[in-house]
Amino acid sequence: xxxxxxxxxxxxxxxxxxxxxxxxxxxxxxxxxxxxxxxxxxxxxxxxxxxxxxxxxxxxxxxxxxxxxxxxxxxxxxxxxxxxxxxxxxxxxxxxxxxxxxxxxxxxxxxxxxxxxxxxxxxxxxxxxxxxxxxxxxxxxxxxxxxxxxxxxxxxxxxxxxxxxxxx
Length: 168
Description:
Blueprint: E1 4-13, E2 20-24, E3 38-40, E4 46-47, E5 49-55, E6 58-63, H1 69-74, E7 79-83, H2 97-100, E8 104-107, E9 112-121, E10 126-131, E11 138-142, E12 150-152, E13 157-160
Parallel strand pairs: 8-13
Antiparallel strand pairs: 1-2, 1-7, 2-6, 3-4, 3-7, 5-6, 8-9, 9-10, 10-11, 12-13
């Protein structure tokens, strides 16, 4: 399991005074400011976060060390990470995306369907992008209890009962 979790992403400058547009990936979107300081993916930058107001698809925020529109624009698309120990413990049936990536996906008969390449969310529900063995193609599996009845982090796998047509 990863010791850092992606909790948000910078969308670029918001205004001309160094604020950024910040998209939160946390269950309580405003809690992103409580997990700081947040780091860039490579760990080279660290930011204290102060949310200033809600905006469309996120928040306007001030980040330590960001003083100008140019500074803010240079951070566009930077993902922000928090150490796992600062985040809340999850109930047994909830998972951080980072915990799912890399898990082997097996069907209910024990046949390998591939590995979780990414976890995507485009609104309605999370989708697991599955890299299929021996192929460059991926499949999108809804991450619902019906399609994925078992997640076994300790064994490094999940059991899938995919809807017809996904792995054809």
